[in-house]
Amino acid sequence: EGRRKELGTDVIEQDQWGIDCWTRQNIVVSLTGSLTSSEIDDFIEKDLIPAINRQGSNAWDIRAAIEYIRKSFAANENQSANQNAIKLQACDLIGRYVNKKGIDSFRIHPKGIGVVCNRIGGFSANEFIVEYFGELYFPWRWFEKQDVIKSAKKKLNLSDELPDFYNIMLERHKFEPSGYDVLFVDPISKGNFASRLCHSCDPNCTTVVMSANGEFRIAMYTLREIAEGEELTFDYNSVTECEEEYRKAVCLCGSHKCRGSYLNYSNGNTSFTQVLSTRHTVLHRNALIFRASTEPLTADDMKKLSDHGIRLSMLRTAPDWLKKWVALTVEYIETEQEELPKQLLSSRNKYFVYDEQSAKLEAKGVYDNRLQNLAITIDKVLYVLRHPGQITNPPFVLLSRSQVVENLWTDSKNSVMTRFVSSSLPKLQHDAVETDVQDIFELVTQPLPGGMDAVKSIQHRFRSIAAILRRVRTNSHCSHMGAADLLEFYANTQHFFKATSYLGFSSPAVEVRKCDVGNVFSRPPPSLLPLNINTGETGDIGDTSQTPESSSSSSS
């Protein structure tokens, strides 16, 4: 059915409660041996959790839900006698275990506002629910806003608060003529009930990016049949690099597929680092920037970008060096996607054993994440480059031969040799034998040859001086190994370059509203409003009546 579901008619918003994986485990333990695994899962997800959410102010107490189920099924003639017996047995077993272990072992937690099916007969599978509405942000602006919000929370002593996850990412289809790209959708003040759906690791809804009449929209569909009174959920599928944030984001879905957290921890997932740690280190990444700065953009590069959906929408006004860098980065992403399944299959993981299909799916998920991050990075770089008067040169610029000679040798103030002579040579006179000092002095004072041989001569002299420094027996508290290492470093350098200094600037002011910071303004301290955020601008917290619910009832 294609019509948009109406709030108050087809669906309703109401407080939702859930159980964490520890409470679920205690329930499973109480039922194991008497019920099968599938019977336990069905009872928890189809009977117990819905019953909990029918208890109003007593929803925190699992005993109220058990009593509700017992009364409901004792009088239920529509269920078979065997089904009723299973559910009543489950209630008795849990009740006994609660009395044995105590109510604290069966904690039930509030999730915040959720969305519940209110239509008689429920929803069918693959049924359209609603579009996901909100304010649109380019990635550069979205991340600026998040930085300002963090500063605001810090000033309000809210830095330890778990962030709200209302936002969702709108991704252009990579097969569109203009290619792949991303925007951020923030429904916190201009959204609809779609942003109220709670997370589940086994959701009954999902989001799909659709294109219609030249417009992209995020549509929410059901994944399976949803009964009247059943909560609508979807998988937030969010990733965090912060372990503390990951641990605080306790999932309350209660499903048998529960991951324990509604966030994925990228640093704890070896699939994100399995290939990266050896094939894309800091040194590799800087090498790609150097190659992009010094190598020409080719037709093969452009084809590679197009094959991955990286076209006009992402690249827009990108200079050739940036396109080259993206193409080189995509080469690594291709390598990772090819090698990662093999490494996952051969790795030992005490929590999960991969088969061929799951390893390929994991690699596909990492690929999608890499492409997302690449689109975000390009957007940030282009924002900096299009600032009026900005330098658009490549990040690295090769030095000419004369510039290399000047930096290594002839500059009377800042050259490598000048600094060595002024800092190390005086100390050598106390430590080295006279012949070593004389050898270094001769190497320093000999005239340089002209042309190409000048750089080679300097590097040869650096190696010779480094060798002398390594054999010096120190008689004082001074060690010369550091100087030897640095000279050796310059002696073996193949390409000399300098980094481009780009112009800094202040972005337009970021407005921080009450709903952006959180529901903490029942009586806001006058001294903290407006906030003077350290961005070069003033970000005021404006007035708005809407405030977010707990983070577990929001989406990302």
Explain the overall architecture.
There is one protein chain. This protein has 556 residues and is of the alpha+beta class. Helices cover 44% and strands 12% of the residues. It has helices at residues 21-31, 37-52, 62-74, 81-101, 139-155, 243-248, 276-279, 282-294, 299-307, 312-315, 320-346, 356-385, 401-410, 416-423, 425-431, 434-445, 453-471, 481-491, 514-517, and strands at 11-18, 109-117, 128-131, 135-137, 168-172, 181-186, 198-199, 205-212, 215-222, 231-234, 238-240, 263-265, 396-398, 497-499. Strands 1-2-10-7 form a four-stranded mixed β-sheet, with helices on one face. A three-stranded antiparallel β-sheet has the order 3-9-8, with no helix packed on it. The chain has a three-stranded antiparallel β-sheet with strand order 4-6-5. It is elongated. The chain starts with 10 loop residues before the first strand and ends in a 39-residue tail after the last helix.
Radius of gyration of CA atoms, rounded to a whole number: 32 Å
Average pLDDT score: 85
Physical arrangement of strands within the biggest beta sheet:
1-2-10-7
Structural class: alpha+beta
Describe the structure concisely for a colleague.
The chain has 19 helices and 14 strands. With 556 residues, it is of the alpha+beta class.
Task: Describe the secondary-structure layout.
Blueprint (H helix, E strand, L loop, with lengths): L10 E8 L2 H11 L5 H16 L9 H13 L6 H21 L7 E9 L10 E4 L3 E3 L1 H17 L12 E5 L8 E6 L11 E2 L5 E8 L2 E8 L8 E4 L3 E3 L2 H6 L14 E3 L10 H4 L2 H13 L4 H9 L4 H4 L4 H27 L9 H30 L10 E3 L2 H10 L5 H8 L1 H7 L2 H12 L7 H19 L9 H11 L5 E3 L14 H4 L39
Parallel strand pairs: 7-10, 11-12
Antiparallel strand pairs: 1-2, 2-10, 3-9, 4-6, 5-6, 8-9, 13-14
Helix pairs in contact: 1-4, 2-3, 3-4, 8-11, 9-11, 11-12, 16-17, 17-18
